[in-house]
User: What shape does this take?
Amino acid sequence: MPSTVVLKRKITSIKSTRQITKALQLVAASKMRRAQEYASRSRAYGELATRLMIKLSGMNELDNYELFKVRTITNRLYVVITSNSGLAGAYNSNVLRVFLKSVSQDKKDNKKSSVIAIGNKVAHLSRSLGGVNLLAVYNNFSDHPTANDIRPILNSIIDNFKDHKVDEVILIYTKFKSNISQEVDQVVLLPAKMIETNMSPTQATYSNFEPDVQTVIDEITTRLIEAQLWQALLESLASEHSMRMIAMKNATDNAKDLIDDYTLELNTARQASITQELAEITGGAEALNG
Assistant: This one.
């Protein structure tokens, strides 16, 4: 049995750790509420953008535009969203597992893989992977990103696709469902196509485009991709803070259980020490009397 000194040190150390995890839990809970609010507010915008793309999908001429052209895939670009720090449960590992599986499949199919890393975790992993081209790293987003924050990512995606440096762009992020339910989702950003929904595309009616069809379609497609990126980032932030809150709550509860266990063990050790001392005193008194 460990000595009482060792047990006291363990209890003190665990209590200090519990204070830290409790503070992180409260901070994550506060951030989670705001992130959920931001994500829910913008979903209506994403749905409206989807309806617009469905309507445009009825145009037969879309295949002639660069952002809609389906090409033979030789180089695939992944836009992967993770966090900058850990202590968020399985949040990062779930995303990285999907990313690694996709990259491994690309290697089997003799396809090149590139990545735009949003968050330090996927950036660190990408640097250690052979044959994966890390194009850029973005790790300075606030808890409420704006359109200007994601504009560099958007421009990089579109420029690489238009210049034929990549043939497909896939977004990997964590979709927020509830405080205890999040799932990793993959979305094909380019080539642009109708998002799969229960709605079917209708033949677009005759319309006048100002200043011209090319400009209008390019602008609408760019805005749709921007909306998808923005929503994915908001969903990921809500998922990250939610999973971090749960992880810190579990850590705090586990610390309490450990403290209770070590306190019981400490009391047992104290009782054993007292019993041994009493036995020694009694034995010494009997020896003197004898």
Summary: DSSP finds five helices and five strands in the chain. Residues 213-289 form the longest helix (77 residues). The helical segments are 4-56, 91-108, 120-128, 147-162, 213-289.
